[in-house]
Amino acid sequence: MRIFRSFEEASVIKSPVITTGTFDGVHVGHKTIIRRLKKLAAEYGGESVLITFHPHPRVVLHPDTAGRGLKLICSQDEKIEMLRKAGIDNVIIIEFTREFSHTTGEEFVRDILCGILKAKVIVVGHNHHFGFNQQGDYRALWEWREKYGFEAEEIPMQEVQNETVSSTRIRQALSEGYIQRANAYLDHFYLIIGVAQKVALPVTHGVPMIRIPVTDRTKLVPPSGLYAVSCAAETFYSRGMVRIHDNGPELPEIFVHLENYEDDIPGKRITLFFHKKLEISGSGLPEERLLAEGVKEMRELIF
What we know:
Layout: E1 2-4, E2 16-20, H1 28-44, E3 47-54, H2 57-61, H3 76-86, E4 90-95, H4 98-101, H5 105-116, E5 121-125, H6 138-148, E6 151-155, E7 159-160, E8 163-164, H7 167-175, H8 179-186, E9 190-195, E10 203-204, E11 207-211, E12 225-233, E13 236-245, E14 253-258, E15 269-278, H9 287-301
Parallel strand pairs: 1-4, 2-3, 2-5, 3-4, 5-6
Antiparallel strand pairs: 7-8, 9-15, 10-11, 11-14, 12-13, 12-15, 13-14
Helix pairs in contact: 5-6, 7-8
């Protein structure tokens, strides 16, 4: 997968089939768009292209309202990793600014998607809007397709168990600790990627422990508690239990108790796949007993 940081740099892409959006979480709806994008790219003998923006447009346009304290399902690095796994050929990451936000929908299509990138097909999700004041949509694309020489396609809204999937709904589930619900919407495990660090006490109550620092203030981290996870780093794999500590205005702390441990794990880039929040009965249990109960439940959940 190639990554570009400007439209001009991406002008080398062959016969692009393009979609655009924030794609936070790369959830089941996003994956439906990506699968169609790849299929169309193969039919046109071209390449799939996903245009996304950083920072999130809400943060730039509404810093004191909708964008204030906005938390995202995945960091930029996590999003890139998931798009890579989804099989996208090219990702264009554009810095979103107030100046760029004044680009009208037609200017975006005429000057950028068709003018610079030479789009063959533009694919959008259901009810997707773009351009200044979100005036661009699928209906506009359909009207412009002959004028600017491209094809347009809209992907229907996706549902999971009769519930409409959206990044907002997933954020709400994660914020409330409903990991399994969020995973169903995502169609993959919610994940956190970070570099493993040593801790002062590397073994706590007989269980090896590492720390995964949260470095992105916009990353949505589930509430304080115990979580069953699986952990992967290169050829390493382990079942584990995560303890999240909410530090108020500071970044949350994430400690991982690993069933398996290797001496070279600290310093490696590790991925935590969240399976479930562990609800241990008896909140007044001593820490040692609480940890033992959590590890026991984790082992029963993850094979």
